[in-house]
Every structure is written in C-alpha cells, then in structure tokens.
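Q: I'm building a small set of examples for a reading group on sequence design. Run inverse folding on the following structure and report the sequence directly after it, with nothing in between.
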C-alpha cells in the first residue's frame, strides 16, 4: 500500500473514532442536562480540527521520511518541527476564536483531542498482523 493511501486510511479510522467519541460525549452531556447548541458545535469543531491535525501530522511525517530517504535528515527534521509549530498555532487560534465567540463550549472542543489516542489503540488492537 502506498504511503498516501495509508495516511488516508489512518485518517479515516481517526475520523470514525472521533465520530463515535463525540457522540458519546454528547450523550454524557445530555445525561447531565448540559447539552445545548454550544456543546453540539464545540464537538463538531473539536472533532474536525482534531482529524485535520492528525492528517497534517501524518502528511508532514511522510514528507520528512521521503527527505530522510533522500539523505536529507536535517531537512526532514526541520520540516516536521515547522509543521508542528504551524499546526499548534493554527489549533490555538481556531479554538480560542470559537471559544471567545461564544459559539462553542470550550470543554467540548478540547475533549475530541483526547479521543485520538484511544482510537489509535483500539485500531491497533484490531489490526491484522500483515498491515
């Protein structure tokens, strides 16, 4: 499987996990009686930004690996570092803007970022030996 297809496959898995996790989060908010429009939008924004963060991280790692294969290890390392700083800055700006606007609940925007690691763990558990 080519690296690009692998990145898209892994991003799809993360997106599915985010959908399940955000639905569970909404259910918990509803059970606690705190579910409203801001929680709904916060979950959507958080999940989309989280999936995009994973996708761009995977793409930058792929690009760095290509550079390393071409004997440019320092260039690959700098590429990953610059992408990381850019991603973190973009995430910070997006989350602060939505939180300050009052459109989204801040906690419901942050929780989807925590759901990425459990999604990866579950996906690895069910992965076949040759994948």
């Amino acid at each position: 499987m080519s690296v690009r297809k692998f990145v898209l496959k892994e991003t799809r898995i993360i997106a599915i996990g985010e959908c399940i996790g955000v639905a569970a989060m909404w259910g918990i908010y509803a059970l606690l009686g705190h579910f409203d429009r801001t929680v709904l939008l916060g979950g959507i924004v958080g999940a989309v930004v989280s999936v995009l963060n994973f996708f761009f991280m995977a793409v930058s790692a792929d690009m760095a690996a290509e550079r390393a294969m071409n004997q440019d290890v320092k260039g690959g390392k700098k590429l990953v570092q610059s992408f990381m700083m850019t991603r973190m800055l973009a995430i910070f700006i997006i989350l602060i803007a939505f939180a300050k606007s009052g459109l989204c609940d801040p906690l419901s925007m942050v929780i989807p970022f925590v759901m990425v690691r459990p999604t990866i763990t579950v996906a690895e558990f069910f992965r076949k030996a040759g994948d």
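DSSP finds five helices and no strands in the chain.
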